[in-house]
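Q: Could you fold this chain for me?
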Amino acid sequence: MKDAGVLEGELRGLTSREAQSRLKAEGYNELPRGEHRTLPRIALEVVREPMFGLLIAAGLVYLLLGDLVEALMLLVFASISVVITVVQESRSEKVLEALRDLASPRALVIRGGERQRIPGREVVRGDLIVLNEGDRVPADALLIKAADLEADESLLTGESVPVRKRAAATRDERVPRPGGDDLPFVFSGTLIVRGQGIAEVRATGPRSEMGQIGQALTEIESGPPRLTLETRALVRIFALLGLGVCSAAIVLYGLWRGSWLEALLAGIALGMSMLPEEFPVVLTVFTVMGAMRISRARVLTRRAAAIETLGAASVLCTDKTGTLTENRMSVAALAADDGQVLMLEPGRAAKWTDKLRHLVECGSLASLPGSFDPMDKAFLELNVELQREAGLPAPKGEIIRTYGLRPDLLAVTQAWKIAGEEDYLVVTKGAPEAVADLCQFGPEAQAILPRVIGRLASGGMRVVAMAEARFHGEEWPDTPRGFEFSFAGLAGLADPLRPSVPEAVRECRSAGIRVVMITGDHPATALAIARKAGLEPGLALTGADLDLMGDTELGEKAASACIFARIMPRQKLRIIRALKARGEVVAMTGDGVNDAPSLKAADIGIAMGVRGTDVAREASALVLLDDDFGSIVKTIRLGRRIYDNLRKAMGYILALHVPIAGLALLPLLTGLPIVLLPVHIAFLEMIIDPVCAVVFEAEKEEKDIMQRPPRSAASRLFSSWLVMWGLLQGALACAIVSGIFIQSVRLGLPDEEVRAVTFVTLVLANFGLVLVNRSFESS
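A: Sure. Below is the predicted structure, expressed as structure tokens.
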């Protein structure tokens, strides 16, 4: 293997003074970070929410009325809720900071003719960076020298397989778009998986390909959540209604009865009966507890507003690499030289023959031990597994000579000296056409090869061929063409599907959620993965197709498309916007930098926490801490349950306020003695608050929660059905309690006993309303 130092030659790079000057002029090689959310800022954002504002305002109202106990209880509850929410938000920020620090790469540069290891953020334009296997590229750069260099660019392009790189013919080449083989550029954030190279930095920080995607995020504005808007409108309605009714009651009672003190007490009681302080309590508790429940499913909630939207998600857009698949290569099929074909499927025993075992051994020997190349790792791991099953020790040997990839010969060849053997064993692995050329295939063999390749490629596999030769002597040929190779067979490699995906997709389908794959990979590969995942058959579009469509046509096509392949980041954003324009509630999953704009533009952005980039996590509302696609469905299920229970609690609150308001209003209309004083209503609130906040939040999910379609994007928390149902329950309870009240008065009971009997009846009616509202299916 060549040493990267050999590549350096006479290259000297920038001097330290030049580097410092450019660093000062152009800034650090890092993406612009959003303003850091400090603890006081998070607390201010939380308190400014209408739910907390109303809760604190209600406490202040009771304080002004002299009801210190109720005032303190509300204010303490508000403070606890604020603290819990602030802690949750700050924990999210700390997790992201830790992930960001882990993702910060270091770089090996040549400055003044010497190699220096520096922080990646200090790399400047014009620096010469030395790249080796396993290195994270710190900036966009032009390759000056390259030896057998391959890079994994999936974070930018979505392609699951590494791409070859070549050295630039001149230093005047313009920076192309990422993706595809034989480009003389490497891009910031990508991973070198094979070979070595030296590159001259052309763009850093926000000027890099990754930085330009980050800049696009600032142009995407996220509107306020639907529930927040509805809550604000509800607060205004109740505030105006309560103020009006309270004022009218005081005036009318004072004029009719002449007792302004009793009028004030009656007006206050009526106002308190209509003051819905339970709404902010419920919304606060449900949001905080919802985030905690979702965290148990290994999902971090970065934006609490996403919890309310989960139940309405109608389209789930997912990228392929790293989300549906594991973002690693594995040997999925083998075809020996005698025509035997073996498909390797998870959970299914394989029928191995000597020829197939030998084929795997050839692939392993043609791979570099300890390699970062995913293809090499796949062959090495499979060979170790087969040796373990057979109880055989690994053959002892050493690599004597390596022939790397060349533009005219896309194959890697390695010569081994095996212990106990006189001849050298030479193995090669590469493109089937290149290996066939090395084996000097005749016309008959050349005709058979494409059929086998086509069969494997149709399954979305990357096909490679293997061959072997024996060599004796010390005069090594200059190229692998000097060996007499014999064909060993073909192998199909694929990025395996995550085990949880098929079941998660089936559950999405039963819940009326359409799963759409958006990937930068080849259409054939995307179709193969879609079939394995169980995606609904539908239209498949490519990035080239999208470029020929206007927004209106794209919206029509997006309604039936299930696969978008060869998609660029800007096109992902168009797809998300087209779906939203059709009224869909879009959840978008992703882990790459290329996913960040669409993650932010989606109604629910879901980033991968383990493999995801910092940019993707910052743009998302939810972060999957275990990168398990199945966790998305668990989160949607929890989101539907939370919203269901929230509606149950709201219906209960609405129903209960009808008899309370009725009892406060009845004496004003009939001349009967006042039955509810402010202290009675305050006591009732001590029962109502924990019941509606804790009891309903803990209710189990409905049986059909994942068998019904998503709720409409335009649906309201207080739908006409919920309001009518709540009013009907409340009217029935009000009639019963009022009847008891009137009958008690007719029986001539003292006022204190009338209040006691009526109040007990109201408390019992309260428990009855709890039982009625526990379930939508049965009461």
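A (continued): The longest helix spans residues 629-670.
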